Amino acid sequence: MRENLTYAIEDYLKAIYKLTKSQERASTNDLADFLDIKPASVTGMIQKLSETEPPLLDYQKHRGVLLTEEGQRVALEILRHHRLIELYLHQILGYPWERVHHEADQLEHVISEEFEERIADALGNPLHDPHGAPIPSVNLQVQATSSLRLSDLGPGDKAVIERVIDTDPDLLAHLSQRGLIPKTQLAVVDYSSFDNNLTIELEKQKERLVLGRKITRQIYVELID
Predict the structure, then answer these.
(1) Residue 112, Cβ neighbours under 10 Å: how many?
(2) Structural domain includes residue 76
(3) What is the DSSP string of 88-105?
(4) Number of domains in the chain
């Protein structure tokens, strides 16, 4: 069915998949904010996608939308393309990790399934993209991820960075400069209730980092003993 879909439709399905990972349904306003599109335009599109054959969305007025099985299949296929391209650009072509998201957004719609397979083979069938997000398997299965943010931790907690949000290039460049990348272990030393700042120590680094909530909410972690 994908060959009959526009790039815009694929972007809608990918966005709804991301929004509904942490909630049952996505509202029209949620989707409009995520895609930076007017709510009226979103309403028209989701009504259209709920009437395709087979339907791509389950849309209920005033209750929002949820992907159908077919809609989720398309969304995961696009997400697999996107994250494989990100890793290829970063690992093989040497792109810095803050630049790969935009490039992958352009390329994810146009590569063939054969090209996707060749990228995966060349990379050794990887499990994660450069930012730590899971790459859907060839069978479109996705590994579970942590919902715990660095901002949720307190003094004495130790954790390893699992993934970071990849949509802000300036933030990604900053995180890379400070060593805040996936698989890095850290310990929380102090917390300021006045400004919600965390003081942390990174594994093998003596320097302590003080991070504001704007940063700590963008980093997902797993607790360690």
Answers:
(1) 9
(2) no
(3) HHHHTS---TTTHHHHHH
(4) 2
pTM (two decimals): 0.91
SS3 at position 31: helix
For residue 110, being part of any structural domain is answered with no
For 204, list phi and psi in degrees, rounded to 5. 70, 15
List pLDDT tens digits, range 15-62: 999 999 877 899 999 999 999 999 889 999 999 999 999 999 999 888
Structural domain range at position 188: 150-223
d(CA 82, CA 75): 10
Single out the residue in 10, 35, 67 at which a domain terminates. Answer: 67
Instruction: Give the residue among 65, 93, 225 at the shortest CA–CA distance from 159.
Output: 225
Q: Which runs of E-coded beta strand occur in 36-157?
A: 57-60, 64-67
Specify if 187 maps to a domain: yes
Domain-located, residue 124:
no
Q: What count of other Cβ atoms lies within 10 Å of the Cβ of residue 216?
A: 20
Domain with 24 in it: what CATH number?
Answer: 1.10.10.10
Tokens for 166, please give them.
Answer: 């990849």
Q: Classify strands 219-223 and 208-211 as parallel, antiparallel or unpaired.
A: unpaired
- The domain boundary, picked from 15, 47, 67, lies at 67
Indicate the SS3 state at residue 215: helix
Question: Nearest 5°: phi and psi at 134?
Answer: -70, 140
